[in-house]
Amino acid sequence: MFYGVALWAALTLNFILPRLMPGNPAEILLARFKGRVNPKAIDAFMVAFGLNQHHTLIQQYGAYLVQLMHGNLGISITYYPEPVIQVLGQALPWTLLLIAMATIISFLIGTLAGIVAAWHRGGVFDSVAPGIFTFTSSFPYFWFALIMLYFLAYKAGWFPIGSAYAGNHGSFALSNWPDLLYHTALPGFTIVVTSIGGWLLSMRNNMITTMGQDYIHMARAKGLARRRIMYQYAARNAILPNMTGFALSIGFIVSGALLTEIVFSYPGLGYTLLQAVQNEDYPLLQGTLLLIAVAVLLANFLVDLLYVRLDPRVRNQ
Amino acid sequence: MSHSSVLLQMENLSVTYFGPPDVVAVHGVTLDVKRGEILGLAGESGCGKTTLIGALTRLLPDNGEVTHGRIEFDGVDWLGLNEREVDQWRWTRVSLVSQSAMNSLNPVISIGEQITDAIFAHEPRTPKADGWDRARSLLRMVEVDPSHVHSYAHELSGGMRQRAMIAMALALKPDLVIMDEPTTALDVVVQAQIIHEIRSLQERLRFSVIFVTHDMSLLLSIADRIAIMYAGEVVEVGTRSILNHEASHPYTRGLIQSFPSVFHQRTRAGIPGAPPSMVNPPSGCRFHGRCEERMAVCSVYAPEDRDLDGIGHRVRCHLFGDSGITDRQPLAGRGEGSGKSC
Ligand SMILES: Nc1ncnc2c1ncn2[C@@H]1O[C@H](COP(=O)(O)OP(=O)(O)O)[C@@H](O)[C@H]1O
Ligand SMILES: [Mg+2]
Questions:
Q1: Quick one: CATH architecture of A84-316?
Q2: A311: which chain B residues are within 8 Å (Cβ-Cβ)?
Q3: How far is the CA of B27 from the centre of ligand 1 (A)?
Q4: Both ends of chain B: CA-CA distance in Å?
Q5: Alpha helices in B83-127 (DSSP H)
Q6: What ipTM score was computed for the predicted complex, to two decimals?
Q7: What is the pTM of this model?
Q8: Topology of domain B1-93+178-185+207-267, CATH
Q9: CA-based, 20 to 30 A from B293: which of A116, B30, B201, B287?
Q10: Is A223 close to B122, i.e. CB distance below 8 A?
Q11: A223/B100 CB distance under 8 A
Q12: pLDDT tens digits, one per residue of A160-170
């Protein structure tokens, strides 16, 4: 229900925003297209994207929704004559590979480290890890990523300078994975290093709060194994607020990740967005933003599903 | 395993919470629990009941420590066991039912899982299905529908949760079940049902119970023997009927009079004043500031335990001390506290 409304809001915003921009996007486009693209294509595009000036806004909106339902996002100017949907289709897997993997790894390691630190509160790990990761998380991302790129990739040559694959075309064939991971490693590393501290600290705090609960006391009184108390009783409860935090920050994670792609010329959605902006490629810009919005919603939805699995209290609602 | 009638013996037990400030929450407690009896432990909140239980279960908070005395459980030096040994004894010998069943149940795993994990932890060779069958019959035993093994704490009513806790506490047939205010969070009707349930289970299975409460009237209806705690000390112990009819310590008498009785139309008299600070306990007898029968000696010398009838009616009060002590005059300059109003 919520997701339906949110999706609709995203679609509608995406429709309205370009129309709020100063000047008529259609005219800007026409001016840019003159002499470069054949007029027929322009007409097709105008109709396809509901930018027909002879129609009312409502009619345009209707046409826009119909086009969307057919998966028609118009034609990219930058990559003419490729349809936007196709450009996005090529970018999306790379973003998923890099951002989803790095974010999940960061969340998992950070959470696990938080559990261990809290469980052995005051121990060696607890006095070292939170400090280090708070420090690395305070790096300005852009600065850190550039430094890594400069030293580890450019100077030392241990990592590729950019792209997500060797050669001109990437493929997810099994034999390509070592190469893909090699290209993902450095950008992924910068994401993990700068985001892990947040997960670690919040999980550590949740754990410490949870460990004061009566049910932990009870689990000890039962003589259960330490491991079971730590995971099934303490961590299992402490992770719930962390999941909520995770869901809430997916938007930020994605916007931060766009930066990663730009710094590392990684051919995902962020990089595509940059191209679209630089080339005033409105259809591509709109399509990318829409896809990002949908992706964020989808990620939220998945986290919600997982949360429901982990917390029986929200199940019967 | 000895066959003495005493299951648990605490001797001169003291517990300190290290601060600052340091709090001596339990001070020189000597108390035993006999096999198959319900021992009531009563006292105002803050008097150290939960701390005493923490020492008994060896689950004191990190800053709490037994500083003095010993605990013997079934003839074994309980405080001398290492963590591993204690873990083996937990739940198989001593189990716990606490005040808030809502908070004591893990909210995200099912009731059945919380019963069976105790079973599997102590009897690892039990087949899965048998463990779950046992969980079901335990629930049946406390009159909760066995299908609730798959329920979560929030799906049960307060009474059912407390019953489930009791079922859990009995899962491994312990010798001693410690109940820390098990009915305080429940309404009166449910409270009566739970008390009845505990009583009938205890009569059937003959485990010992330490029943902690600040509700004296409740103890007079359920306990075989009753110990009264005041400011970290046990000031009087005796059988239910002795405490009911021959309560001796002024504090005990005050407690008994402080609840209204339907039969005697007694009014709520209460005890004037508030419990003393545990950080700086009063000199001499800890109760002297609130005591209506205090004597000069009370603010100077701490009274010693005295067995009034030779069979365990024990009181810690100068009223029943050796005449030699009672007659002593306060030493100059040491009786400052005695003149204060109460
Ligand atoms: N972890 C702790 N640290 C310091 N003082 C504590 C701690 N727990 C309890 N106390 C103090 O010890 C005294 C006894 O507390 P408690 O055993 O909980 O009493 P009761 O269960 O009878 O209400 C109180 O004065 C309380 O403030
Ligand atoms: Mg208490």
A1: Orthogonal Bundle (1.10)
A2: 107-108
A3: 13
A4: 49
A5: 83-89, 101-104, 111-122
A6: 0.85
A7: 0.82
A8: Rossmann fold (3.40.50)
A9: B30
A10: yes
A11: no
A12: 777 767 666 77
